[in-house]
């Protein structure tokens, strides 16, 4: 069962919608995704698809269907749904069931006589011409020899959106329409394709699925005692071993897809009816403990299995055929589920025709990434097909950035949690936290060069910032906030550079909770108060510009003019200065360290040798006492340790 075509004219805010459902090269249905602002007609279009199915099913089951009560319509017709300024609205839908066509036509008109004269509607499109003239409404369904067996052979599921409100067309008398325990009578349908109260109804079915057992029988030689000179026939016995049923395997694959991980599902027992899910880094003692989004996805996917299981045995995902309609599929779904998980779940059912409405750009990006061109994304109300792949690529980039940032937060929290546990195991220490990885190296080195700090030297420990994926003043500020939540007896000190106004304090230092302090590196005598400096600027400029044996050195941004050419020799060029010198936050003392665009080249060389030295190489040369790097003056660094001593004294007093 698949929809083939839908045409809507002057219905609600839809003036003209014409869409023919597609199939891909494998002859599988292409998903249709309806997008657009609230009120653009997405749910209105879906309501007509559902109404066509309800009317089709009503004809097949004359003694009653579960989707509506008695002879109720699914949606209430109203002349107010005719588009403003128009006389007639018309909805035409074609459905294919077992190679047999079903035609549905729904017509409303303010002036039926005029509609017929103008051929806005044709006589053969009406169920009863006179009735149309009298009531102004007509609904006609031609089932063309479709049988109940044809209808039941494929699945049909509709998942409405959460009912925060009732639309005008919704017939509230149908609210109690669902009865999952209705017995099958002749001429009466035993199933309901409109699925509400989804979670409750799927839980019991899942328990049944996992309580079901499948056994395989094996013959094994019986253990017999060998008697000398006697001929003994080999006796075999039968044993049976429990294994997963086919449908359990399919449910397991769905759960593994949702958790995006390899999971082990524990069978329920007589004493414990809960299905447990265990992964490498998680444990769910009951599926009810899954998140709302996970439960929603599980209910959608397993409902498809459950519906197919009614009339089929021993099947694979690829065997399932039919149509699944989901309104507002992205409600309550985290972007990760929209972008990655839902598209993967849909791909498990290649022969199912998915028709969904959505708002999430991340879902659109994920579907486009998963399906490529085998998907139609239609913008409502007028049915423009979205083909701008660049828009999707931008959303994919946005997702990747967000995912990267999320992973960074998780990584940072993990490192800080480990640090917090370490602090609880030690006592009476001074722990130093810095912005960058080279800052720690400088402070360690300075303690070996300067005298007068022997008393605190033994108590100082440095946080291993190498474990951090990202560094910088923003990360250090988050560390400062995090450390205040702990409970330990150590003094924790966060040392900030002075190259970002946002993090420059108006005090010598600040004390937070839990003996946590922060301060900016003080201004050395060779710099001005307005200078934006990092710890390397504690050296004099002539020291910073020391060359190594390969002629490489650290450069400062103020060595280059607005064209990126060095002011002294006019032979060196730096792209970074060209791109940034006119910016308001341009820092003349920015260290050009050979990273990214901070590379320095000789203009007269054919090769692209980078003459800018990295900060890591610079400190390494100092530590190894390389020629020209062995006579640096470290005296200005004492200003940093003088503040540390003040903090230690305050910490002891309090």
- What percentage of amino acids are in beta strands? 15-25%
- What characterizes the major β-sheet? 6 strands, mixed
Strand order of the largest sheet: 7-13-14-3-15-16
Approximate helicity band: 25-40%
Radius of gyration using CA atoms only: 36 Å
Outline the fold blueprint.
Layout: E1 2-11, E2 14-20, E3 32-35, H1 42-60, E4 88-97, E5 100-109, H2 112-117, H3 129-135, E6 137-142, H4 148-153, E7 155-159, H5 198-211, E8 214-221, E9 236-243, H6 246-259, E10 264-266, E11 276-278, E12 283-284, H7 292-309, E13 322-326, H8 335-347, E14 352-357, H9 361-371, E15 376-379, E16 384-385, H10 389-425, E17 430-434, H11 437-449, H12 454-457, E18 460-462, H13 473-483, E19 491-496, E20 510-511, E21 516-520, H14 541-544, E22 555-556, E23 572-574, H15 575-580, E24 591-592, E25 600-602, H16 615-623, H17 638-653
Parallel strand pairs: 3-14, 3-15, 7-13, 13-14, 17-18, 17-19, 19-21
Antiparallel strand pairs: 1-2, 1-4, 4-5, 5-6, 8-9, 10-11, 11-12, 15-16, 20-21, 22-24, 23-25
